[in-house]
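S., here's the first fold you wanted:
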Amino acid sequence: MKFKPDKKYIQMGIIAFIVAVCTILFVFAVFNYPIFATGFENFIKVLRPVINGFLVAYLLNPVMKFFETRFLPALFRALKLKEPEGIKSKRIFRYISIALTVIFVFLFIGSFIGLMIPQLVESITSIAHQFPEYADNLVSFVNKTFDDNPRFIEYFNQFYSQFEESFSDFLTDVPTYLNQIWSTLSSGIAKSVAFVLNLALGLILSIYILSFKEKFIAQIRKITLAYFSRKRAHSIFEEIRNVDRIFKDYIVSSIVDSLIIGILCFILCLIIGTPYAILMSFIVGITNIIPFFGPFFGAVPCTIIILMINPMQALYFVIMIVCLQQLDGNVIKPRIFGESTGLPAFWVVVSILVGGGFFGVMGMYLGTPVFAVIYSDIRRHIAYKLSVKGLPGETSKYLFENELPYEVPKAKKTANAASDNTTDDHNYSEPSGF
């Protein structure tokens, strides 16, 4: 008798084998984490130019779309020229838009470096040269302010003497530190050169990606439809659009908000006479990109610097920063961000702490949109599950236990109740889990 294997059991065997192999690999990876971490790091290092290319293309895409869909058509209409038609003509239109985008980005970066960097270097150099004088000003201010509290002055002078001694020891050991710094700089220069090369390669790849982005998107759609059902592919496309919307809105909104806060901070610093207004405004604007904790990160070092120069100006600066952050949190941010993330304040704080703990400053910045995507997916899944059960999706419907939107099942009659021919319609039990 000829044996005919059952395809069902063959598939089950293959699946069981794959699960077993994956389990073994997972256990091996857990117990040999350094090996896998090093291999993964080397793999990412090789792919870094490609990753940079996609990131740069993603960031430059809105600027290119502006030139392609708004600026160039308006320019053609103003010059009374006929807009290009056909694939080849539109391709030329795309190349012009990419060229304008690259020129705009280089002009923006060059203008920023030319205007801001010299001012920042001058401010930092001036603070370094006049640091002893600023420290003496702070000591005299404390002595005058707390003249009637000798114990506080004693503690402060003790702290200052220790700080001065540590600073003198640091100056004595400067040659040793310079050797350490030089060795660090040597490796840092090599890393910087590699970073610049990767960024340049990424820029070249981003130009290619922007030139043929429709083709790349079409290939992704084709592969997705080939390996998934239409329903699943539609869900994947919806998820990609959702991620793109959240990240794009968040990045653009945070940059615009930080620019507004930096400019307002500079104007207010000029009005109240804050020293080193450009440096203070730059620090406040940059750190404001990080949600929730950013304003505190920027205000603390600025306040310390101003406190050593002019303590009263430090007080004015703190009051100004508090008012500016209230304006930002209650007026500017709601209008700019809108519903770009849809993430409650509690989960914003959690995302910043978790992202910063794992990935540093970049994790603190990108943790919010990543959590927003996860939060949005979970919320949609819960809403779908509730709708299948015929339950409302509004959280307000579940605030009070005695008003939950479901029908409580009637309790079954016990044997004694049945023998007594009595009904106990009020003996209900709540479902478990509530």
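And the second, which I think is the more interesting of the pair:
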Amino acid sequence: MNKQQNHDFEQQLTGMRAALLAQIAEQRGGAVSRVEVAADHFGHPEDSGAQLATERELEFALGERELAELAAIDAALARLRTGSYGECTDCGKHIPAARLHASPEALRCIHCQEKEENQHPV
């Protein structure tokens, strides 16, 4: 991968990271503390216990997904810095640029990713 491609992917990943952090901040109330947002969101006495439990589970699931996505972006940026970006972490082969453009945080080539998904279905 040449320097221009590295720069382009770094810009894409950095933009994704900034957008994700802004999204997380917005969902957590921006300048309002997370505790205040949770109290406001879950503090309605007219809501049923089941409804509150479902909402909490959804909030936690979204939070976990966002944190996993942020970690994947940070890991991709680290691979860019070390020079291993664009190499499949499983087989070591080059990941095609089209795949990286579609999913710049990708760890694996398509073949290895499919194998991983078949071994560990979601």
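Why I say that: The chain has two domains: 1-85, 86-122. The first helix runs from residue 3 to 27.

Talk tomorrow,
H.
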